Amino acid sequence: MHLSFRFIFISCTIYLIFGSCAIAQDERYYRKIFTGELYEKKEEILNYKVSVETDAYLIDLNRDGKKERIKALKKDGLDFIEIRDRFGQNLMTEKLKAVGGESKLYKIQLKTISSETDVLILHYYEGQIDSTIFEGRARVYFLTIQNRDFKRMYFYEGPHIFLEKEMVNNKYALRYYTVDTLDYNNDERNEISINYGHIQHIFFYIRNGIWRRL
After folding, report:
1. pLDDT digits (tens, 9 = 90+) for 176-189
2. 199-208 LR contacts (CB < 8 Å, sep 24+)
3. 199 shares a domain with 100
4. Are residues 162 and 80 in the same domain?
5. Same structural domain, 199 and 185
6. Has this prediction a pTM greater than 0.85?
7. Do residue 100 and residue 41 come from a single domain?
8. Buried (b) or exposed (e) across 66-83, using 16+ Cβ within 10 A?
9. Residue 167 pLDDT grade (very low, low, confident, very high; cuts 50, 70, 90)
10. What are the pLDDT digits (tens) for 18-71?
11. Rounded-to-integer distance, Cα 40 and Cα 38, Å
12. Parent domain of 142
């Protein structure tokens, strides 16, 4: 009987110590609910999250007569491209890498590489840096669709195609590259060429989203 009484006494003591802490925590939690403090904090966090999107551009990406929906998204200042099928199912969402303010996707080209492969060329302005010396630049991304199969879509970060930069001694640099597709080696497959004056970079498609640059 004496041992049982000690066990009950210890159990009650533990409950009073830890149970009272838990009750105090519960009281503080419910007090925040009733006063609105808890919800005000959540609302404050959500105010920092901003998401905007462009209208959907309708393009038949796999040449089946049905158009897919392409959107440019901006979430908390980060840029994405989103592709959905005609039923609204997401096919691909990829992040575009910005380096400064006013970044945007400004041009899209659908080109045929071969009888079984197409490429969506994305022209993306990475933004501008305007701290001490102004600089703005753009690059292309290649979204390759192999065998007209959306399960075989591949995303590739291509080269820069535009550069605008202030130089020392009041000099100014401006380069705008052209983007073309042409069969350079007569293998019945088009290559992508990036050209500026006498500078030319040619991209050959290998397979499974792999491009080789010359």
Report:
1. 999 999 999 999 99
2. 201/159, 203/142, 203/158, 205/113, 205/114, 205/117, 205/119, 205/144, 207/146, 208/146, 208/152, 208/154
3. yes
4. yes
5. yes
6. no
7. no
8. eebbbbbbbeeeebbbbb
9. confident
10. 444 444 444 554 444 444 444 444 443 434 378 898 999 999 999 999 999 999
11. 6
12. 51-213
Q: How far, in Å, CA of 61 to CA of 91, rounded?
A: 11
Amino acid in position 44: E
- Tokens describing residue 93: 């969402």
Tokens 């609302």 sit at which residue? 43
**Beta 191-196 vs 199-207: how paired, if at all?**
antiparallel
Sign of torsion, CA 132 133 134 137?
Answer: negative
Query: Which tokens belong to 113?
Result: 């590489």
What does the block give as tokens for 193?
């060429």
Do 135 and 65 have their domain in common? yes
Distances (CA, A) of 211 to 35, 97, 168, 192: 59, 19, 36, 10
Range 149-163 average pLDDT? 96
Q: Which two tokens stand for residue 37?
A: 């403090």
Token duo for residue 92: 């691909």
In 97-123, which positions are buried (b, 16+ CB within 10 angstroms) versus exposed (e)? ebebeebbbeebeeeebeeebbbbbbb
Cα separation, 130 vs 97, in Å, equals 18
